[in-house]
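Researcher: Final request for today, and then I'll write up notes for the group meeting. The sequence and the SMILES for thiamine diphosphate follow.
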Amino acid sequence: MTTKVKTRTMSEETHGSLKSKPIRGAEMIFESLEREKVEVIFGYPGGAALHIYDALYQTNMKHILARHEQGAIHMAEGYARVTGQPGVVIATSGPGATNLVTGLADAYMDSLPLVVLTGQVASGAIGTDAFQEADVLGITMPITKHNMQVRDLNDLPRMIKEAFYIATNGRKGPVLIDIPKDISGGEASYEYPEKVSLRGFKPTTVPNILQVRRMKEAVAQAKKPLILAGAGVLHAKGHQELVTYAEQAQVPVTHTLLGLGAMPAGHPQFLGMCGMHGTYTANMAIQEADLLISIGARFDDRVTGRLDQFAPHAKVIHIDVDPAEIGKNVPTEIPIVGDAKQTLSMLLEEDVVSAQSSEWMKQLNKWQETYPLWYEDDEATLKPQKVLETFSELTDGEAIVTTDVGQHQMWVAQYYQFKQPNRWVSSGGLGTMGFGFPSAIGAALSQPDHPVYAVVGDGGFQMNIQELATVKDYNIPVKTIVLNNGSLGMVRQWQEVFYEKRYSESMLNQNPDFAKVSESFGVKGLRVTTIKEFEEAITHSLNYDGPMVIDVAITPGENVFPMVSPGTALHEMVGISKGGM
Ligand SMILES: Cc1ncc(C[n+]2csc(CCOP(=O)(O)OP(=O)(O)O)c2C)c(N)n1
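Model: Predicted protein-thiamine diphosphate complex:
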């Protein structure tokens, strides 16, 4: 554990005499973070960030030293996904900053609020190819919602205030501030602005009432309506309004991968996930619907399949806080610019008229009974689907679950019965391997009393396995379930289906013993090969106060179904029922 001595908070010294007494730029950072009520920051030091780390030493701010900057930023993403609050990251210049690139792109694609502070070489050295210099603004411009470099120390407090504002207002996203070393080490008087005024950034969150009324009329006339709920519902914390509206308007609901948890699993109007590995009922509902209401979803190609055959009979209503999303991929009859919660609240205030959907609901129920998710349980091997069904039952659908990217991610999405919103943390847009384990650390720090599980593949876990040292160092009780199939499973599946079983570089022949690896980090490690052992391990983990890794030897060669192949339409999915592939 760390031995550093905490001496005082910044506020103690600066409150009351803000303008008169100059303080260092690095101190301004922590003073400002305190004012933004930041509880924890994730980071990794280095030369250009040394003033910042020295100032940190003199505060009470909780800092988690990751073992790789990529780990730090995924932790911040996990924190942001569960809380809705910005995750804060500090890294040094050059390689420290470039190691953040994947996490920035990931957060940008999934609209996660982050405030990222990077050290930079001293102002006078910028552009000279100085040691550990990288053009961080140039590199991160396309993968941040906004980025800025501090040129004058007097601007630093305002820039931090703006960064928090931009990251969390309208469509959320990552904001980066690049801070040259002479700026963090320089002194000036400090004043934190109370308000932000940005002429070019005034997002519309309250929708136009006339558009809302048009939607009401369209729903009243619909016979086959459908809501497609995306992560925007969760970001806006509009899940309760979604359920109430769907019930009152008699409209069934499907969701995107990242919309999981917006509607509780098991709700009679809930059809499951749609898209590439969605349920038969959800995908067919899209193809048959006469009215499709997208709320906080962006019509990603994994959702739409072949675009020109997507929802061919539907009038489309698109609700999104980001006007640039509307009409981007799918032509929209009724555009509604607004925050999901505010729009749904407005709809509820307007006296909901329900759709004429009783026949439609009967048909959907029939599909659900006839074509449920299925898998062949051969008893001899450990089926991943069975593992996840068991995991869902033993944790009662209440755990916070993070995943990496691959087959295991799709199986969690299909088989974990999320009962609550904001308990699902996964890399959707960018599809980042190595995300699952560190993001679970951030999630666990935000909810210390809640069980947090990272479900990862044997490939992805090895991409950020060094964070085992972090969970040990701070005794963060993350439980990691490695669904170990000895391969890059999703790549192997595509090679089986589309490349005539030419398994080019997708076998992981030299996997370490994950239980022993974790033991060597001081983290409890278990290996299980039967469903009984798995049950025992999960039961044990629920009462175990510390980190743990459970290496699960699942059936190699198992595939994820149903599946919509790239370039085909949603109704052309394969593997719908036993023997159907
Ligand atoms: C950083 C990164 N590199 C490559 C890929 C491409 N990719 C997608 S899934 C996958 C295989 C994942 O294997 P594993 O982590 O073992 O999980 P599984 O599919 O077996 O559940 C790969 C290589 C990716 N998504 N992210």
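Model: Residues 1-18 have pLDDT under 50 and may be disordered. Residues 404-408, 431-434, 457-460, 483, 485, 487-491 surround thiamine diphosphate (CB under 6 Å).
Researcher: Thanks, that's everything.
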